[in-house]
Design a protein that fits this description.
The complex is a heterodimer of chains A (about 250) and B (about 160). By secondary structure, chain A is mostly helical. In chain A, about 75% of the residues lie in helices and about 0% in strands. Chain A has one domain: Up-down Bundle (Four Helix Bundle (Hemerythrin (Met), subunit A)), CATH 1.20.120. In chain A, helix 2 runs antiparallel to helix 3 and helix 2 crosses helix 4. Chain B is about 30% helix and about 25% strand. A five-stranded mixed β-barrel of chain B has the order 1-3-4-6-5. The C terminus of chain B is likely disordered. The chains are: A mainly alpha (about 250), B alpha+beta (about 160). At the A-B interface, helix 2 of A face helix 1, strand 6 and helix 4 of B.
């Protein structure tokens, strides 16, 4: 653990803590800027939809939240794999710091989806594959948080939670491809790498909102990971030095 | 091989196994996961007997009939191969339209028609301003299906 890990200097909490602290305002500011631009494009510039009228505009929250809910889970599973394989300290903290944001995104996705489903489909909720698998994702987030909170030793909590994350990661492709694999009420995906079946301003509004959600998620995850670091490493010299520095 | 690489391989292997198990389970459950079946499935006898189920497809052009009371409705659901008449009494969702997607829950009647207790509209994944939709529509009428404004463009134009 000496020379080899020099490359991964920022994997050490003592070096990552101040770096995250410096980056947080930038991500927060970027989130606000992208958010304002995205909302402006989405709510004021983007045209009315030919079949859904103004109601479709909830897409500017719904789709970025759904993307983030899946992506954050993948990132957490990545950290879990790193943590289980390399026994690094930072990985478990990152996974824990991301979990509440992921759960929030999954909840937002389901909630805005329900608000959207009622006027368009005629139902708040149907047990189709897309909606059900997204609900399972929310349960996975909540389960992960409950499991890690129930185990006192943080390293063991990380391991147990990491296993849950890795097993649950199989759900993410199921969510994404559910509308392709099965008959669902939820429509197929609009945005693809090759082509998007959406007017350009609508698409840009949505991508800006997605960037806003990204920056927000990074900023709050960094805030949370800093708190977790202080808590877990409170007996180390660097935390003591840090806290004395704050008190001064 | 270092122990951490072994662990990583182990994690990868375990993930692959979990993935395969999930794929097999989902494959076995396939018919239960689908929210609805098509009129072709019903014609092939795949509909559950004596139980409520959902059918889905397009509302056939020109097939919608409303009784004078305004809530008793009949329409034809088609998957372009087979058709099925659906009877429904209730309020339709706003997006319910001829030529658009629909999912109806209900039971088969003795005469082979379907009596729905709930009708949901299934919209497609296209979003565009009305002018663009109209332009695509006009172009399509001119050039007879070339660009599709929606995934439903291949529907037969024959009226019911």
């Amino acid at each position: 653990m000496t020379d080899r890990f020099n490359l991964y200097k920022y994997a050490a909490p003592a070096t990552f803590y101040p770096l995250a602290g410096k980056l947080i305002p930038w991500f927060a500011a970027a989130s606000v800027i992208f958010g304002l631009a995205g909302l402006y494009l989405g709510m004021l510039v983007a045209p009315t939809d030919f079949q859904q009228g103004e109601g479709y505009r909830i897409i500017f929250i719904h789709v970025p939240a759904s993307w983030m809910s899946m992506f954050i889970y993948l990132v957490m599973a990545f950290w879990a794999a790193i943590g289980l394989a390399f026994n690094t300290r930072l990985s478990g903290m990152m996974a824990q710091a991301l979990a509440p944001t992921g759960a929030l995104m999954a909840f937002l996705s389901l909630w805005t989806g329900a608000l959207w489903g009622k006027p368009m489909w005629g139902a708040w909720w149907v047990w189709d594959a897309r909606l059900t698998s997204e609900l399972i994702l929310l349960f996975l987030y909540i389960g992960y948080m409950a499991l890690t909170a129930a185990i006192d030793d943080p390293r063991r909590a990380d391991k147990a939670g990491g296993l849950l994350l890795l097993v649950g990661v199989v759900n993410v492709p199921i969510i994404y491809f559910s509308v392709k694999w099965w008959n669902t009420l939820h429509q197929g995906s609009t945005v693809n790498l090759t082509k998007s079946s959406m007017a350009t301003t609508m698409l840009y509004g949505m991508l800006l909102m997605a960037l806003c959600f990204w920056m927000y998620s990074i900023a709050v995850a960094f805030m949370r990971v800093r708190t977790i670091m202080l808590e877990r490493e409170r007996h180390t010299d660097w935390v003591k030095a840090e806290l004395e520095g704050d008190a001064r | 091989m270092k122990s951490r690489h072994k662990k990583l391989a182990l994690i990868g292997g375990a993930l692959a196994i979990v993935g395969i198990i999930a794929a097999l389970v989902l494959n076995a459950l396939n018919s239960n996961i689908a929210l609805y079946i098509s009129p072709t499935d019903v014609a092939a006898g795949k509909a559950p007997q004596g139980k409520a189920f959902r059918i889905g497809g397009l509302v056939k052009d020109g097939s919608l009939q409303r009784q004078a009371d305004g809530v008793t409705i009949a329409f034809v659901v088609t998957d372009t191969a087979k058709d099925m008449t659906v009877h429904y009494k209730g309020i339709l969702p706003d997006l319910f339209k001829e030529g658009k997607g629909v999912v109806a829950q209900g039971r088969m009647a003795a005469d082979g028609t379907f009596t729905a207790s709930e009708v949901l509209a299934k919209h497609d994944e296209n979003y565009m301003p009305p002018e663009a939709a109209k332009a695509v529509d006009d172009a399509q009428k001119g050039a007879n299906k070339h660009v599709s404004p929606s995934s439903l463009s291949d529907k037969p134009k024959a009226s019911y």
